[in-house]
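Record pair follows.
FIRST:
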Amino acid sequence: MIAERSEPLADNAPHVLVVDDDQKIRALLGRFLTSNGFRVTEAADAATARAFMRGLAFDLVLLDVMMPGECGLTLARDLKSTRPVPICMLTALADAEDRITGLEAGVDDYVSKPFEPRELLLRLRNILRRGQTPASTSSRDEIRMGGCVFSITRGELKRDDEAIKLTERERDLLRLFAQRIGVAVPRHELSSDDSTGSERAIDVQINRLRRKIETDPSNPVYLQTVRGKGYILYID
């Protein structure tokens, strides 16, 4: 159940355009995003979305792939060629080629249906964070992942103020991910220079790190696998 927001939205609340032909999904997303501090406008198709974008400015577009009439990929490709608006695609398509087509069109991220609302929220926030100035990103000294907080300078990880022991390698990995929040880091960049830096060793190290920062390591929310590429870290 999605809680209704009791207080008014902030004047600088990010404005999201939700484009999906499924009215129930639009309503669900509208309530969920509004309850989490977003301003939401809903469109049932690409034509309506275009009409809204002629008169309103949006911080992000959440766009379904499969829609009657003009599909989401075509709309995304056109939007990316005419205006610098971040786009997150909602897709039921599991085929990697469809995702690659979207990425080639300039889509910033993908979320598969059915989606976990909390994961969707993390992805949207990270897309918006990537659009901030480098100075605001580089000045961050702590990153939060649920109940865990990692101090980049001190190299300390805590859960609910209780210290969690890290190996030097785990500390290095978290610092590397902290520099690339919301960006997929290839396995070869995560490999160390010594004999333990094989891709298999990286997978083992990532699994150990997940056990320290994830509530459910077998179903990670923050440190996720990007199939065929590497890993990506999302933060709150």
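SECOND:
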Amino acid sequence: MNSYDPIPARLAALKTATTPELKTQWRDLFDSEPPPFNRRYLESRLAYRIQELAYGGLKPETVRRLEQLGEELEGGNRKKSRVRADTIPIAGTRLIREWQGVEHAVTVKADGFEWQGRPYKSLSAIARAITGTRWNGWVFFGLSNRRGRR
């Protein structure tokens, strides 16, 4: 059976849609005014919503688990709860950076980072160890621009 699925085409069309078109889709799909966020945010949320409506959302047990994790975080480290989750690489991610002809690989851990088999709390500490000078670790590993936005 070869049936056409229009969802991939709808997702691809988000990239070429104008911002006013994205906002119109937002109103249709969310039945609310779009938030004042950037285009990339609108595209990603619309893509998720299109798929959610077509294929179904998260399983109830997944929603419960996410709520539980959110509550644990709320009661935990306040600094961590203020960090946007979409800016932190997922544990297991490998960050690769070449510096003066040497490739350096950093592994993201649940509680920090690992470089050359040693744990580090921050990317800046690793960047300093590699270069011998002070660096913003997010900038050094290409996760942020120089203005500090992630």
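COMMENT: The mean pLDDT is 84.
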